[in-house]
Amino acid sequence: MNRFAGKVVVVTGAGSGIGAATARRFAQEGASVVLAGRTESKLRQAADGLEESKVLVQTADVARLDEVENLIRAAVKRFGRLDVMVNNAGTAVEGTVTEASPEDWRVVMATDLDGVFHGCRAAMPQLIKSRGCIVNVSSVSGIGGDWRMSFYNAAKGAVTNFTRALAMDHGRDGVRVNAVCPSLTRTDLTKDMYANHALMEKFAERIPLGRGAEPEEVASVIAFLASDDAVFVTGVNLPVDGGLSASNGQPPQA
């Protein structure tokens, strides 16, 4: 497939996991791709092997609006336009509301929620010009609760509804706004979970497809939502969860 020939895509949190897989997927389908994140070495590793003339590595902390605005300016300066904004950067803190700290709350909100707001705000004028689209990376944690993840749940819940509202506000501008809602996915954030075999067995029992996702599997759905194959899809928060949300997280009956 070559669905994104001539298109320019910005992916935040592109140094690893879902972000890196997404940047590669868009590049494979012909896009010029801007890989953004806080650590240049990780971004360059993620960009290794991609066509140099169609790749830009740009450090940016999504928690800072000025850095995200500079990211969008750099993308347009290099490639002349912007067609797709993928707001993927995220972090998580485990603990109850009394165990995790106010500082933890601010870190999670600054990255997971403010970062999406900054990306959408900075990219929107360019996307209106190109009649482009946004794909936010929310989570099944944004459409339901988790044990000991209330800060993350709150941030992702806000992203989920922010996505719906932006789709309503900017549909007449020709800009589509959707989100993917992954469940357990093999990334740097979940490597400790994957190392806990007993825990992974419990997760597998709750997921109808019997396993967590690979980053490339989430990336393929992001690419679908950004493509003309989804030209009449907007305001959707699409679970990419192996059926977890459909089963309400219940294990199979004996």
UniProtKB/TrEMBL annotation:
Which CDD domains does the record cross-reference, listed alphabetically?
Answer: SDR_c (cd05233)
Q: Sorted alphabetically, which InterPro entries does this protein's record hold?
A: KR_dom, NAD(P)-bd_dom_sf, Sc_DH/Rdtase_CS, SDR_fam
Q: Coiled-coil annotation: which residues?
A: none
Domain called Ketoreductase: residue spans: 7-187
Instruction: Give the family per the record.
Output: Belongs to the short-chain dehydrogenases/reductases (SDR) family.
Protein name per UniProt = 3-oxoacyl-ACP reductase
Q: Which organism is it from?
A: Bordetella genomosp. 11
